[in-house]
Amino acid sequence: MAQHQVVSPLPGIFYRRPSPEAAPYKREGDRVKEGDVIGLVEVMKQFTEIHADAGGKVVRFLVENEAPVEPEQPLLLIETA
Amino acid sequence: MFDKLLVANRGEIAVRVIRAARELGLKTVAVFSDADKDSLAVRLADEAVPIGPAQASKSYLNMEAIIAAARQAGAGAIHPGYGFLSENARFAEAVETAGIVFVGPTPETIRTMGDKAAARAAAKRAGVPIVPGSEGEVEGFGEARAAAHAIGYPVMIKASAGGGGRGIRVADDPAAFDNHFRTAQAEAAAAFGNGALYLERFIRRARHIEVQILGDGERVVHCFERECSLQRRRQKIWEEAPSPAIDAATREALCASAVRLAESSAYRGAGTLEYLYDDETREFFFIEMNTRIQVEHPVTEMVTGIDLVREMILIAQGRKLRLAQQDVAMRGAAIEVRINAEDPDRNFMPSPGKITALAFPDGPGVRVDTMLYPGYSVPPYYDSLLAKLVVHAEDRDLALARLRRALGELEIGGVVTTAALHRRLAGLEDVRNARFDTGFLERLLMTQAPSNGMQTRRDS
Fold this sequence. Notes:
The complex is a heterodimer of chains A (81) and B (460). Helices cover 0% and strands 48% of the residues of chain A. By secondary structure, chain A is mainly β. Chain A is globular, with a radius of gyration of 12 Å. With 460 residues, chain B is α+β, with helices and mostly antiparallel strands. Chain B has helices at residues 11-23, 40-44, 63-73, 89-97, 107-114, 116-125, 141-151, 174-192, 248-264, 297-304, 308-316, 396-409, 419-427, 429-432, 440-446; strands spanning 4-7, 27-33, 47-52, 77-79, 101-102, 155-163, 166-171, 197-201, 206-216, 220-232, 235-241, 268-278, 283-290, 333-340, 342-343, 349-350, 353-354, 357-359, 366-370, 377-378, 385-393, 411-413, 455-456. Chains A and B meet through strand 4 and strand 5 of A and strand 16 and strand 23 of B. Strand 5 of chain A pairs antiparallel with strand 23 (455-456) of chain B.
């Protein structure tokens, strides 16, 4: 079964939800299409949407909500096939 | 009277406060997150206390950690800098409850001035002009028309339920008002399910002008004004003193109004009253007060020779203001530009990273407030301000020439900065003639080919 990792293109803080009160973009088990927003990375008070670069099913997130992330750090594991 | 000061902040302002405290003979304590272990503030302070992980919400916004750090280090006072907890009344209260001096106004003042409606009401009571508007929502066409007449044209018609610029229409005269009002009402009802409208004077070309004040809880003096009309997404990037747009009589009325409002709240510490200035009618309107030191305070320091941060600390030590109004004089002109780690050619994309080359301008009339040093890694977790380049000269033209010269000497390698944008601005004829308003910079940037639309800014 093929698996794919979505990585952060940027250093910063990773958020799983669009705002503190909102529901997470994706949960474990959710279907995900290529291009779907899976989270935000905050860099110097600017927020960048992170898009899935493959479709499939969410296996799990590899970092906690509001955790610092490095460039190329895996954020999300997707089951692609 | 305290002899040790904790600085509850980071970046250039932490360095700025440490310097002022040291000159007063105080011991200094820096606090730092995991991402700031190598910061200049940590290096310069007498002591440094860790307060948590990189995320500001768990470190620089963590009241308990900061107060615990002050207790641990035996600091008698906390300077909040700007941003973070600087305008948080609960923090000021908690600091005082812990028996520590908060370098700033009372929690009550912070609370009142932080509440838009309360600040507006305080201004009204002090006889300070505010942007004319309807008292709440207007009902019915007759009442609306009378209100528009009283407010004066052009009038902005806003949907109560709108926001972010939605549901706003501008009427230049009564005929246009009649049309717009009915359409706006129908639209608001359709779009928001609520047809309630309110009215406010529309200022077509607004300048942002602000007055610096110092108070000791009884008496207040002003340190003249700054103009900060060059903004992008409401972030100031270029500030100057004096405002090139107002004459001596306007300046006197403006500064006097700021003193009236600050005195009416028995203001203690350094503060700034922000105004919109209408170029067409030459009126000024109070919009809000910042109850802290501001990023752009150095331009005021350059033209008045007053060390505002030192005065803040002296006031916090319980001393009376040393200055009478006639002691405060303004000489020449000063300009500050913010050097941010952002790429102006790529929609101001943030550019954290390691500083590989560093040369700051020097020579007459040049000041640089920064936390950079060669080899420093700019973390991605906080705001993008790297340095404030400030110049001072006998008049504005000479200050601009000095700014162009200084920007030519500036070199920051390893990260992309906004220096190139400032070099461009400093050479523009409209900037030389001070023909700008708060929309100028965004209009200028729109004429460039916009790059990718990656950013959505979320206030945190």
